[in-house]
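Researcher: Structure prediction, please.
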Amino acid sequence: MNEQNNDILVDVETTYLDEESDPEKARYLFAYTITIKNHSQSSARLLSRYWKITGGDGHEQEVEGDGVVGLHPYLAPEQEFTYTSAAMLDTPVGMMQGHYKMMGDNGERFEVNIPAFTLAAPRKLH
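Model: Predicted structure follows.
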C-alpha cells in the first residue's frame, strides 16, 4: 500500500511477529517497514510522526514523536529512506494511519499522509 503526496511516496509493508506475540495474553506484535521516497524537485527533512492505531475492538491510541527510529532523515530529490518499527495490539486485527511532518529546504513545513494499513495475525489452520 502506498500514497503519494507533496511528491513524497510512502510505501508500507507489515509482518506479524508470531514468536514475539502471545495471543493467550492478548499480545499481538506487528513489524512494519516503511519506505519514504522523495519524487519532488527539492529536498526535505522528516521532523516528526503521528500515528493513530486502531484495534479490532475499536480502541484507538494516538502516538506522536520526534523523527522516526531516532532519526530525522533528509531526503534529496529521488532519495529514499527505509526503516522498520513495531506496534503492539491487544486484538489480532487492527489498523494504523498517520502522517509525517516535514520541512523543505525553503523552510516550508508540510504533512505527508501515511496511508491506512491493516495489521492482521494469520488465522491458524486446525
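Model: The mean pLDDT is 93.
Researcher: Thanks, that helps.
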